[in-house]
């Protein structure tokens, strides 16, 4: 983070949020009138943040919603999470991302097939489309969208000689499955670059894509989220799961989850936390991203590089689907056998080229026949999971009934690990 930018922007941003957002005004009530360092602020509680961010009677926003865009960033059908951007905030967000996108291998004249999802307030397709419009590289867009059937995707990218595919890995794998089935000719492919986002790309997936599109380069399109905003960009020096900080637009921190102190030295894993320096309608100040990370470059390096290490306890990411522990708890609470002392944890796995979820429930006395009912209830609360499962893009949920003592805890604090990411083990 540029110290000059931080000193200039941070105090005024915090003062603005305290004055205009009832949530931040109350949260920072006991703090000094002027804040000079980010460490003076508490790391946000995601639960408190989203409880304050309601479309009716909300306490988070700093002003009325009269222009811009509203996007859905997760949650179940009964507990959706909405992110609100003013027109100015949205334009600043996308323009900054486009500058990072231009450093990731795009070339003038590329024909980019946008395979991200659109509709139902999801932002990935619209965001990518606008970022490509603003990108310093002059490219031609092919707005196909992720819901398009693989046969139509293949026909379009073949007819229009797409050179770049952009989408979530599950969509890419569905396309590869189709090409393998129909016996597509790899030598005829014009695809030279695949840009992915929304989930990790694993070695087995990379191998299949490289076999399908010989000579293809596979890179992240960038690291951002609907709720947290700008997080990192991937230039040509970045390896898998590596990103660089947006120094002028976001303050990216890695926090020790036990002490709450920022981690400065490379190689030490902690919680990713971000402050959006140029977002005003819905301020993001020390927001837990939901990922774990560690620094790669030395402290003080411009656009410092970091490595993602999987999800934290904030949520479980299964392919492009996000599941929050509180939503799973709500489902379990509807079953009498799971009420009271029944605890659980979510384990994300990767097998046979797909992501999956194991719900481990600490209750040996429960009837295992409940498993099918619980799984069906989760699919009902998170329809996207069931839809992607039906399309063969992710694995079905599995339930393990165990003794409560078998649930994993943090060895230092004794706290239950609510989400465990097994994919990076």
UniProtKB/TrEMBL annotation:
Name this polypeptide is given: Phenylacetate--CoA ligase family protein
InterPro entries listed in its UniProt record: AMP-bd_C_sf, AMP-dep_synth/lig_dom, ANL_N_sf
Entry keywords, A to Z: Ligase
Sequence ranges assigned to domain AMP-dependent synthetase/ligase in this UniProt record: 73-233
SUPFAM superfamilies: Acetyl-CoA synthetase-like
One GO MF term: ligase activity
Gene3D superfamilies documented for this protein: 3.30.300.30, N-terminal domain of ligase-like (3.40.50.12780)
